[in-house]
Amino acid sequence: MTLIYALSGGLTFGVVKATKTITGRERPDGSANNSFPSRHSATAFSAAEFLHQEFGYHSIWISIGGYTVATMVGASRIFNDKHWLSDVVAGGRHRYTLHKSHILALSISAKKIM
Description:
There is one protein chain. By secondary structure, the chain is mainly α. 77% of the residues lie in helices and 0% in strands. It is built from four helices and no strands. It has helices spanning 2-23, 39-55, 60-79, 85-113. It is flat, with a radius of gyration of 15 Å. The chain starts with a helix and ends with a helix. The relative contact order is 0.19.
């Protein structure tokens, strides 16, 4: 469980960093040219998806809580003029997709080993 989260986090960091460098999108407040996608949103939605996958079967409220907090992180980035809406959506989608693909790949690998 921790290994999946760590691997997913490392890959996402690299993908988001590369995307930020390639796109060079200016932040709404003009402070830098690394707005797209939002790394904060990517990390928050990763944690939400992790909670949902690992503990959501115990209670739906774990999943709801995780995604609510992730949404609030994204909203705060927009409210504080650090990201555009599309940056936040892309960051959340980036991380969610990468996390899901890691879970699938590792579960297939584990079945082949056994």
